[in-house]
Amino acid sequence: MNASDIRTFFDGYARAFTAQDAKAICDHYAFPVQILSEDAGYVFRDKAEMLADMTGFVAFYDKVDFARAEIAGFEFQPLSRAFAQAHVDWALINKAGGHIVDFHTTYTLRIDGKDRDGGGPAIIGILGHSEDSAWKQRGVSIDW
To answer: Can you tell me the distance from the alpha carbon of 84 to that of 4, in angstroms, rounded to the nearest whole number?
Structure first.
């Protein structure tokens, strides 16, 4: 896997978020997966568990007039034959085309195709560096 392959993977991830398609979002993960933000942490043992939790996440984005997720910055960091990290700067855009929030996230990836339906890269961990702070700065309470 090279940076272009991983960028293509994240372009698909952004499309899944833009569509608010919980199943398509979850299809980008290999399980178990750990997600850490500034204020909380989650572990999902399997896709069904994550899908059940995704309802609140999608509802939250609907409340903030979310229209699309754009990748504003991208960096690929290979770690080994099996693992890598991707550093992504996200820009969330509302239905009128205006800015909602920007934030930075690091994704730990399994890039050897193991444990993902259909093979290919998969997210196995997320470190949400600044999304919680971005929402707080906007005066929005996170309730996903």
So the answer is: 13
Specify the pTM: 0.91
Dig out the tokens for 8 from the structure: 């293509």
Cis peptide leading into residue 78 (ω within 30°): no
Token pair, residue 82, equals 């099996």
> Over the chain, what HEC string results?
CCHHHHHHHHHHHHHHHHHCCHHHHHCCEEEEEEEECCCCEEEECCHHHHHHHHHHHHHHHHHCCEEEEEEEEEEEEECCCCEEEEEEEEEEEECCCCEEEEEEEEEEEECCCCCCCCCCCEEEEEEECCHHHHHHHCCCCCCC
Is the distance from CB of 70 to CB of 98 less than 8 angstroms? no
CA dist., res. 7 & res. 27, Å (int): 16
pLDDT in tens, 18-54: 999 999 999 999 999 999 999 889 999 999 999 998 8
The Cα 39–Cα 133 span in angstroms is 9
Two tokens, residue 62: 């609907």
